[in-house]
Write a structure and sequence with these properties.
binds ligand ME8, OB fold (Dihydrolipoamide Acetyltransferase, E2P), Isoleucyl-tRNA Synthetase, Domain 1, 22 helices, 42% helix, alpha+beta
Length: 682
């Protein structure tokens, strides 16, 4: 196996998982991608040539079925959701150098080349498979018919097909030797132990083609088979660089960046990345990635945030109300990387106000404002430093030494705690020096040099915080940099100009720009606004919902429990019992009043008659139904949903509708026969 020669310039190739396009992106996807972006930015800031890849995983039975349910072709369906991922990444200021879709020609060509290579080298043979398959995880399950999937608990399906097989069993010993020789290959330790135990348990050959559906990449020379979606997906890490291409520019990129330095993944897909992927690469004679690093799960309501449970929060909601930087900061500060951590709106707003609005943001605006007030925005020559300045410089230098190491070790939470320790130290220094207060016995002329010293020193320390915070707070750090008169931070950082941030970089004579708002304080209604946005989105996109998902989206949550590693995620549930269903009170109601909710383009306010009572319900259907046409219509409602407020109005129940097309357009449920108002659906 060829290693990159040590003399080559330093390069860094980092990847996220490529995300399934069966549903829209949520905070869990954003989390992994934000972590990669912060790492990629920090590498670039160190002057390291970096390549950051993300993309979408668009083939397979799961996508084919989701598209069918939405009444679209898989290609249309995949294009729409892939576009949403791409738009979100740009909204969150992610700096991926490429975005691969597995439906692209360049990928297809590379996957077919990999398959042919493995077959030519004798690692793929034809056989027949009869066994269980989990469509949700696209995973072969070694268990008798009727068994649930050991990973997600959903029922497995029996597959009996003639397939191509990959000789995974031939790699058992080599993989174990590799893990042993490269302890850094699988991180963190807990994942490494799991993977080693799995391989020690014995590896069976792996079926790498399917014939019972069409939505995939055909096996070269035997087109009735499509290539197993995980082989297809994993190959993205090399096809995006140019593997399989004849173009010299692609070949050069592949040579420059492969092997990857880090595949960042969620912990549930460790086996695919740490067993199958290295075995495929070994079989193809390609170097192995240097590390596979797994993040823990973002939990919401104590379960893994996931589209199948329905307990998702969208990143757009947080970005809209508090800004993209707030989300980036919160996720990295709140969650201990590698462990599971809770998301709550309360802890988000608390951190935002505490650390960003009242902390860093407030500090910057005070210092910038005073520099304008006392020195017309021009950094003055400063008199010699006193004890307090020397102490602040020492604090900054100690942070400059420890923060990068903590960041490099992916201990983002601690790194930010360290950096915010410096924010607090600057605050304390300012308060103690109080440059705005001139003691009566001191003349104006005597006071000016002291003010110059304090403001110059505080601004310099802010410069240090800002340079270090840039990978996590790119938008706000760039604003601060401009205010400090230092120009374009994005450009400086991306081109390695922040390689060394030594104390004293803010020169006298530098002209500050006008102050600009950074983190306006989140008011009391911030959480309600976010919940409203989530509700409106849920109501309009997924009108037919289960009780659990509706409640999790609607009811405010308990106060924050920070990065709680002890809360185990519940297995995802596929089936409910009849008793579960009976808990949902579905009833026929008649619309008495229907009108638009002011300032909302999605919500209608309905008053409905249930026979024994009248209710107000808000429904996210305004873009699809004229209110006047609904009056008199009989609809189905979820009658025992906990009440919630949207736009200041209480909603008591939910209208049931089918969700159609990839926009999730609602179509209200109704009856062909006449039904009495109030009747229960069972
Ligand atoms: O597994 N907490 O795609 P996927 C933390 N296509 N991270 C989360 C998360 C959560 N609650 N939910 C999702 C696939 N993620 C395959 C991958 S790679 C060759 C193919 C993140 O859409 C996390 O990184 O199910 C997880 O591994 C990934 O999204 C799964 O995305």
């Amino acid at each position: 196996m060829k290693e990159r020669p040590a003399t080559q310039p330093e390069r860094f190739y980092i990847t996220t998982p490529i995300y399934y396009v069966n549903a829209r992106p949520h905070l869990g996807h954003a989390y992994s991608t934000i972590v990669c972006d912060a790492i990629a930015r920090s590498k670039r800031a160190q002057g390291i040539e970096t390549w950051f890849l993300t993309g979408t995983d668009e083939h397979g039975q799961k996508i084919e079925r989701s598209a069918e349910q939405a009444g679209r072709t898989p290609a249309e369906f995949a294009a729409a959701i892939s576009g949403e991922f791409r738009a979100l990444w740009s909204r969150l200021n992610l700096t991926n150098d490429d975005f691969i879709r597995t439906t692209e020609e360049r990928h297809k060509r590379g996957v077919q080349k990999l398959f042919a290579e493995l077959r030519d080298r004798g690692f793929i043979y034809k056989g027949s498979y009869s066994g269980q398959y989990c469509v949700s995880d696209e995973l072969y399950v070694d268990a008798p018919p009727g068994s649930p999937c050991p990973d997600c608990g959903r029922p497995t399906e029996t597959v009996s097909e003639e397939n191509y097989f990959f000789k995974l069993s031939a790699f058992e010993r080599r993989l174990l030797e590799y893990y042993e020789a490269h302890p850094e290959f699988i991180q963190p330790e807990a994942r490494r132990n799991e993977v080693i135990a799995f391989v020690r348990g014995g590896l069976k050959d792996l079926s790498v083609s399917r014939t019972s559906f069409r939505w995939g990449i055909p096996v070269p020379g035997d087109e009735k088979h499509v290539i197993y979606v995980w082989m297809d997906a994993l190959a993205n890490y090399i096809t995006a660089l140019g593997y399989g291409s004849d173009d010299p520019a692609d070949q050069e990129r592949f040579r420059r960046f492969w092997p990857a330095d880090m595949h960042l993944i969620g912990k549930e897909i460790s086996r695919f990345h740490c067993v199958y992927w290295p075995a495929f690469l070994m079989a193809a004679g390609l170097p192995l990635p240097k590390s596979v690093v797994a993040n823990g799960w973002l939990l919401f309501d104590k379960s893994k945030m996931s589209k199948s449970i329905g307990n998702i929060v969208r990143a757009e909601t947080v970005a809209e109300v508090l800004g993209a930087d707030a989300l980036r900061y919160f996720l990295l500060r709140e969650i201990t990387f590698g462990q599971d951590g809770n998301f709550t709106f309360e802890s988000l707003v608390q951190r935002y106000n505490g650390d960003l609005a009242n902390g860093y943001g407030n500090l910057v605006s005070r210092v910038v404002a005073m520099m304008h007030r006392y020195f017309d925005g021009k950094v003055p020559e400063a008199m010699e430093a006193g004890d307090a300045e020397r102490a602040l410089q020492a604090a900054a230098e100690s942070v400059m030494a420890s923060y990068p190491a903590q960041f490099e070790a992916r201990d983002f939470s601690r790194a930010l705690e360290t950096l915010w320790g410096l924010v607090a130290a600057i605050d304390g220094y300012l308060t103690a020096a109080a440059p705005w207060k001139k003691p009566p016995e001191r003349s104006e002329d005597d006071h000016r040099p002291l003010q110059a010293r304090v403001l110059g020193c505080a601004a310099e320390a802010i410069r240090v915080v800002t340079a270090l915070a840039w990978p996590i707070l790119p938008e706000s750090a760039a604003k601060v940099w401009r205010q400090l008169g230092l120009g374009d931070l994005e450009q400086a950082a991306q081109t390695g100009k922040l390689k060394t941030i030594e104390w004293g970089g803010l020169r006298p004579g530098t002209i500050f720009a006008e102050p600009a708002a950074l983190f306006p304080r989140a008011e009391k209604d911030a959480i309600e606004r976010m919940l409203n946005l989530e509700n409106e989105n849920n109501l309009s996109a997924v009108a037919a919902v289960s009780q659990t998902s509706a409640e999790s989206a609607a009811v405010p949550h308990a106060p924050a429990k920070t990065a709680d590693a002890t809360v185990a995620a519940e297995p995802e549930k596929a089936k409910i019992t009849i008793e579960d269903f009976a808990r949902v009170e579905l009833r026929v109601a008649q619309v008495l009043v229907a009108e638009r909710v002011p300032k909302s383009d999605k919500l209608l306010r309905l008053e409905v008659d249930l026979g024994d009572e009248k209710r107000q319900i808000l429904a996210g259907i305004a873009q699809h139904y004229e209110p006047e046409k609904l009056i008199g219509r009989k609809v189905v409602i979820v009658a025992n949903l906990a009440p919630r407020k949207m736009r200041g109005l209480e909603s008591n129940g939910m209208i049931v509708a089918a969700s159609v097309g990839d926009e999730g357009a609602p179509v209200l449920a109704g009856f062909l026969e006449d039904v009495p108002v109030g009747a229960r659906l069972k």
